[in-house]
Design brief:
Layout: E1 7-10, E2 21-25, H1 28-40, E3 47-48, H2 59-64, E4 69-74, H3 92-113
């Protein structure tokens, strides 16, 4: 985990309609990068997790392994519930903004890595 430049974890509820989002980053530099990436695509950052807190989902494994990461999560009233289905539980336009933002940003980071 420590060999990776950084991990980007997209939580299960990214793109949930009308829900606040939160980012949990392992360090200030990665948090600032994430905020810029999101804001460039018009995605507001609603909350930032306290530094050092254990992120939700699979990113917790990266945290415990000492890797660099950012975890993106949104709230949801129907998480892991039978009502967690498209179209009511997914805002496709919002999800597309996340996908565009991070596809471009991660590609730029990868291009500078070599």
């Amino acid at each position: 985990m420590k060999k990776a430049r950084a991990w980007v974890h997209f939580g299960a509820n990214v793109g949930a309609p009308q829900q606040p989002n939160m980012i949990n980053a392992s360090d200030d530099t990665l948090e600032q990068w994430t905020v810029a990436v999101m804001e460039n695509e018009g995605i507001q950052v609603n909350r930032r997790a306290e530094r050092g807190s254990i992120p939700f989902g699979e990113a917790a494994l990266v945290h415990r392994g000492g890797g660099r990461y950012v975890a993106l999560v949104c709230d949801s009233d129907v998480f892991h519930n039978v009502a967690d289905r498209w179209p009511k539980a997914v805002d496709v336009a919002s999800l597309a903004r996340y996908a565009r933002a991070f596809a471009v940003a991660v590609a730029q980071v990868a291009a500078t890595a070599s």
